[in-house]
Amino acid sequence: MQPRRAHHPYLMLAPTALVLSLFVVYPLGLALKNSFFAWDLLTPPRWVGLGNYAEILASGELWGAAARTLVYSAIVVVFSVSFGLGLAVALNRRGAVYAFVRGAVFSAYVVSWVAVALLWMWILDADGGLLSSMFRGLGVRPLNWLGDPGIALITLAFVSVWKITGYSMVIFLAGLQDIPPSLLEAAALDGAGPLRRFVHVTWPLLRPSAAFVATTSLILSFQAFDVVRVMTQGGPVKSTTIFVYAIYEHVFQNLRVGRASALTVVFFLLLLGLTGLQLWAFRVTAVQKRAT
Amino acid sequence: MIAEKGEGLRLALSRSALVLVAALWLGPYAWMTLTSLKTLPEIVRAPAYPLPAAVQFGAYREVFAAVPVGRYFLNTLVMAVAIALLQIALALPAGYALAKLHFVGRSRAFALILACLLVPAQVTFVPVFTLLGTLGLVNTFAALILPFGVSALGTFLVRQALLSVPDEIIEAARMDGASELRIIYGLLAPMIRPTLAALFLFSFVFHYNDYFWPLVMTTDDDVRTLPLAVALLREQGTGVRWHIVMAGNVILSLPVLAVFAVAQRHILRAVTARV
What we know:
The complex is a heterodimer.
Chain A: H1 8-34, E1 37-38, E2 46-47, H2 51-58, H3 61-91, H4 96-110, H5 113-123, H6 130-137, H7 152-177, H8 181-189, H9 194-222, H10 226-231, H11 243-252, H12 257-291
Chain B: H1 7-36, H2 40-45, H3 58-66, H4 69-100, H5 106-115, H6 121-135, H7 141-145, H8 152-163, H9 167-175, H10 180-191, H11 193-209, H12 212-217, H13 226-236, H14 242-271
């Protein structure tokens, strides 16, 4: 349709453009600029060129944060996507009981990260926690889930898996709805058992959903913060200082805006790379879908 | 009827999944609620014993005594509702222009808005914090609300919904002399109510729960939100009193779970939307 006046569409987009440029585009530029300065928020910023980048590289901070984020995200994605797929297939049935259980799994995704983190801190509590007590009841020495630098990050990852498995489950359920029942019936008539039906009919058709959910959860888990802030504050001995928490710590505890900004710039580039990966995964699965 | 091959196995698999899922997902909620009904001596004496001796609401009273729950809850509601409404108010004209009007640069504008999906709050918080600091807006509702005034996902959803509205309806309204604003908010908005409901609920739940942004943008009780208060229950206690923390957890989670129970369908619409 033609707009009534030529300038109308631009007026309609103006508020959106204003908010996005003020809170997305301009801050990106500002982060880049700040990354070339040393600034403690109290005294005027001082130009240091690439000094902040050299610092985060030389101190090993960048690699540490990147490696920890990668480990955390890998665990979260692999387990939440496979559990989500399993639950979607198992719970894709009619009936109030199934609907209730699906709702229960998804409810964890809807509840605040704060509530989930605090709840699991109590369950994992070394002294009185439910899990540790169950271990002792079975005569096994419980691990120090959150206090051991070797396992704290893994613990956080599994708490996150608990929280977001419902998300992949609902994406897979939506994908399952799109599979024509006639295809599965035809396969069953041909004598294919449930396992073969899954491998040869269901899974190929779910692959686009899998690509979608895997890449979106990867990008989201890269941005994790709340679970770290509430459960471990980056410790013990930095073992759970993942990217966003490292940035947060620099600004709000060390008052180092410059270094935080350098980390932010690198973090943003990483997210861009992951989005590239996402677009590539969509293209590949779309091609496969057409081929099948 | 001939039993389908493998049906028994599938049923058995589904049943065992049900039991496992119930234990894994409902168990922790039950544990949270049960703990919140206990008293301190009970927790110290037998922390893992499941049932409280008697239902006690002392932990809830202590939460209300420790933090201004009402104030924080009101702040959270004001913030989350304002963000959701603002997103809808801005997404409607933008979505209308992108879906219905021809103008130079339309596809580029749409691509640019979607590109903003790539920049999460975790990337912008440091520069926005310094920006709002210079403007003196830290610790205000403006700092909590305005940065989320536009939802790229919301603009996308509104545009998609408006694409399926026939042009004739808009032309007829124009003939009747309705202004463009009236067409957008008075005519089209009610027509895509399901999309707007999904957007509202999704946004409301997200920002009600949000811990990150209020944490970095506020230090003041007057504008702090409920998730911050509940997280503080654990930090400030001398010796952690888990029954109080769990009571705070229940207070924080119940409203969202209630919204979810009533409007699950709408929330799922927004969550499963694909850009």
